């Protein structure tokens, strides 16, 4: 039993040494293990020969074994510091791989997050150009745009000089029953079947079999109703709801912000003209021909419509096809602002290059500019997808807050991203494209105008020396590169010359 208790501390000490040896580089592990085992044997003999208390002796031996961990980590740090650098460490390839990984991660988020994926799609854009809302002359209030359905039928069945398409809708409240829930009152827009086609509003989640059952009227839900009543479930498309005693098929969802016409409908009921014949007054949207757009260039113009009986009637046309900026438009505007603001926070100069016989050949110089172009090529889409991820991860509907968030995030990412790309380029050796290192302060600040004063950095491959002035002067206003000749090669014989 005494031998068992005596062997337990020895086993514990050897286990600690074994664990510490795992941190030692593999090439030195065997020798390190032999040295520490022999040292442990000497320490144990020295402690056993003394007449100290047993538990205190074991604590001293345990503290000695714990010191092996510190020694192992010191060996690993020393080996890592003295080992040759990995080929990619600090290289241009490593920088491009990092940017590519960041681009892939931001794109993956934009693809996986449903809200961001919806925000990227063009279905949220505004109506196409050339659309006007036809209103009665001399009328005020809600009745200004109210025109009878018979007038719409008259216009849509005849050719006109300035118009090539008409659509009609009227607002009303109806009781709608969806599923097994209780009926609720919706604001419905009773619309002609060509309304969304004329407006140019794509319908989200629209299937390819909308016309398979032509006997049922079609309904398009507003985005707000779809989120509030149906929890944003795309599976609701294709199901049936009841309006009074009629069954209606839901064929898609439209964005809420695209609707800038009179009324705030919860849904649009698309029916053929024969089904809404005899309906009350509503609103007429007309699409101008190319000649009509050329002549009616103002937002509000007086127009004359010729009726079927060749009579003339004056109306007021209000343009509704203005463009609402989408995520891509906001991104382009913010990126342009960042480019204009860039000279205010950093110099766009990449420095001066000495005329020397040791300058790199033309392929190397072209490669350097290709590296800068590759950074910009990766940075710009990174700014686009990261701004989308930050602005729309919680709200796919384009609100004013999301627009301002995308504008601000795109501006900041582009501004400081391009600034980083330029600063990184200034610290890249023109020969091997590795970052220069080992900064050294040279000169005195009091002698700035009499002698050189600034920072010197050297390429670890032995190609160049970079001079950066601490205070730009008329004779030394920007950084300069000095190409090193063959006499410097002996200093870099043990380094990776790239």
Plain-language structure description:
- The protein is α+β, with helices and mostly antiparallel strands and 498 residues long.
- It has 4 domains: 2-80, no CATH class; 131-319, no CATH class; 327-426, no CATH class; 437-492, no CATH class.
- It has 12 helices and 15 strands.
- A hairpin with a 5-residue loop joins β2 (163-178) and β3 (184-192).
Defining key terms:
498 residues, alpha+beta, 4 domains, six-stranded mixed β-barrel, five-stranded mixed sheet, 15 strands, 41% helix
How does the SSE layout of this entry go?
Blueprint lengths: L1 H20 L4 H24 L4 H29 L9 H21 L1 H7 L10 E6 L12 H8 L6 E16 L5 E9 L2 H5 L18 E5 H8 L9 E4 L2 E9 L12 E5 L11 E6 L1 H6 L4 E7 L5 E8 L7 H19 L6 E2 L8 H31 L7 H27 L10 E6 L11 E5 L5 E6 L10 E4 L15
Parallel strand pairs: 3-7, 4-6, 11-15
Antiparallel strand pairs: 1-8, 1-10, 2-3, 2-5, 2-8, 4-7, 5-6, 9-10, 12-13, 13-14, 14-15
Q: State the distance separating the first and last CA atoms.
A: 65 Å
State the helicity in percent bands: 40-55%
Q: What is the number of E strands? A: 15
Runs in which pLDDT lies below 50 for 5 or more consecutive residues are none
Q: Please give the count of helices.
A: 12
Strand content: 15-25%
Strand order of the largest sheet: 2-3-7-4-6-5
Element string (H = helix, E = strand): HHHHHEHEEHEHEEEEHEEHEHHEEEE
Mean pLDDT: 79
Q: Which sheet architecture does the biggest sheet show?
A: 6 strands, mixed, barrel
Q: Radius of gyration in whole Å, from Cα?
A: 38 Å
Number of domains: 4
Structural class: alpha+beta
Q: Looking at the structure, what is the overall shape?
A: elongated
């Amino acid at each position: 039993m005494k031998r068992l208790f005596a062997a337990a501390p020895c086993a514990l000490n050897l286990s600690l040494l074994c664990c510490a040896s795992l941190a030692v580089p593999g090439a030195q592990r065997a020798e390190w293990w032999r040295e520490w085992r022999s040292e442990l044997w000497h320490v144990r003999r020295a402690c056993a020969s003394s007449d100290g208390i047993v538990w205190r002796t074991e604590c001293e031996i345990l503290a000695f074994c714990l010191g092996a961990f510190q020694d192992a980590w010191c060996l690993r740090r020393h080996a890592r510091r003295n080992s040759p650098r990995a080929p990619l460490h600090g290289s241009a390839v490593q920088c491009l791989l990092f940017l590519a990984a960041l681009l892939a991660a931001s794109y993956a988020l934009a693809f996986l997050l449903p809200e961001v994926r919806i925000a990227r799609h063009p279905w949220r854009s505004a109506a196409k150009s050339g659309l006007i809302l036809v209103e009665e002359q001399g009328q005020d209030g809600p009745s200004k745009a109210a025109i009878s359905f018979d007038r719409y039928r008259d216009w849509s069945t005849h050719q006109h000089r300035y118009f090539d398409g008409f659509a009609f809708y009227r607002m009303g409240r109806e009781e709608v029953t969806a599923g097994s829930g209780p009926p609720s009152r919706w604001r419905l827009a009773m619309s002609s079947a060509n309304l969304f086609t004329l407006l140019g509003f794509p319908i989200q989640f629209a299937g390819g079999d909308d016309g398979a059952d032509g006997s049922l009227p079609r309904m398009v839900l507003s985005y707000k109703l779809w989120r509030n009543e149906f929890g944003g479930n795309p599976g609701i498309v294709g199901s049936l709801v009841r309006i009074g005693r009629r069954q209606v098929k839901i064929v898609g969802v439209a964005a809420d912000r695209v609707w800038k016409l009179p009324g705030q409908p919860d849904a649009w009921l698309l029916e053929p003209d024969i089904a809404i014949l005899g309906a009350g007054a509503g609103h007429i949207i007309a699409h101008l021909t190319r000649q009509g757009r050329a002549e009616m260039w103002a937002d509000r113009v007086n127009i004359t419509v010729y009726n079927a009986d060749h009579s003339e009637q004056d109306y007021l046309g209000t343009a509704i096809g203005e463009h609402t900026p989408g995520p891509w438009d906001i991104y382009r505007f913010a990126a342009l602002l960042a480019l204009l603001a860039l000279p205010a926070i950093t110099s766009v100069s990449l420095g001066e290059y000495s005329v020397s016989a040791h300058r790199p050949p033309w392929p190397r110089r072209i490669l350097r500019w290709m590296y800068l172009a590759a950074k910009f090529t990766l940075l710009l889409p990174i700014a686009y997808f990261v701004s989308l991820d930050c602005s729309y991860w919680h709200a796919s509907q384009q609100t004013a807050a999301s627009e301002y968030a995308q504008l601000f995030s795109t501006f900041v990412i582009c501004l400081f991203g391009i600034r980083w790309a330029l600063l990184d380029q200034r610290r890249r050796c023109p020969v091997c494209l590795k970052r220069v290192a080992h900064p050294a302060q040279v000169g005195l600040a009091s002698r700035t105008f009499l002698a050189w004063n600034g920072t010197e950095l050297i390429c670890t491959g032995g190609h160049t020396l970079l001079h950066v002035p601490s205070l730009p002067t008329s004779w030394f206003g920007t950084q300069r590169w000095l190409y090193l000749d063959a006499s410097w090669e002996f200093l870099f014989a043990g380094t990776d010359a790239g």
